Inverse folding.
């Protein structure tokens, strides 16, 4: 008798755990690391998105890679993709110009991190990197690239 009561209790607890887990996945607290593209950011950050599209060279960074792609090896091209595309090699990120054209630039998530969870949680600021530091820029604009491309550290690049 006690064994069946215990088993029913465990099953109920397991079912409750599954239901809570399913409910939370819709909230975006899963830390999915999934990219959604800059257009998703524009829905709430219209001014920043407008400035990014109008003033930031990052908004058109895929074009320079496209122009040079014929002269690069696959490995060299993939090195370019890591900084010039959004989320290359990551869930929801850039795959190719044909398959994921909306990710073919250094979009908002290149600097602020994957946005899926932030968007799904209704803009929860804890789920996105809000304040950037120069060290965030140096992920792509490191000493080797600074020398090669004459990088000038403009922290906000005209976007904010």
């Amino acid at each position: 008798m006690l064994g069946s009561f215990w088993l029913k209790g465990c099953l109920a607890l397991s079912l409750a755990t599954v239901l809570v887990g399913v409910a939370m996945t819709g909230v975006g607290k899963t830390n999915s690391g999934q990219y959604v593209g800059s257009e998703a950011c524009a829905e709430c950050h219209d001014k920043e998105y407008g400035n990014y599209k109008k003033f930031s060279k990052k908004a058109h960074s895929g074009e320079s890679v496209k122009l040079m792609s014929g002269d690069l090896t696959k490995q060299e091209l993939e090195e370019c993709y890591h900084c010039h595309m959004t989320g290359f090699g990551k869930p929801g990120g850039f795959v190719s110009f044909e398959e994921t054209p909306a990710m073919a630039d250094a979009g908002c998530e290149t600097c602020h991190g994957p946005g899926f969870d932030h968007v799904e949680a209704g803009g929860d600021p804890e789920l996105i990197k809000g304040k950037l530091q120069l060290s965030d820029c140096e992920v792509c604009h490191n000493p080797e690239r600074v020398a090669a491309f004459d990088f000038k550290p403009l922290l906000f690049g005209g976007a904010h």
Notes: Residues 1-29 have pLDDT under 50 and may be disordered. The radius of gyration is 21 Å. Residues 35-149 form a domain with the Flavocytochrome C3; Chain A, domain 2 fold (CATH 1.10.1130.10).
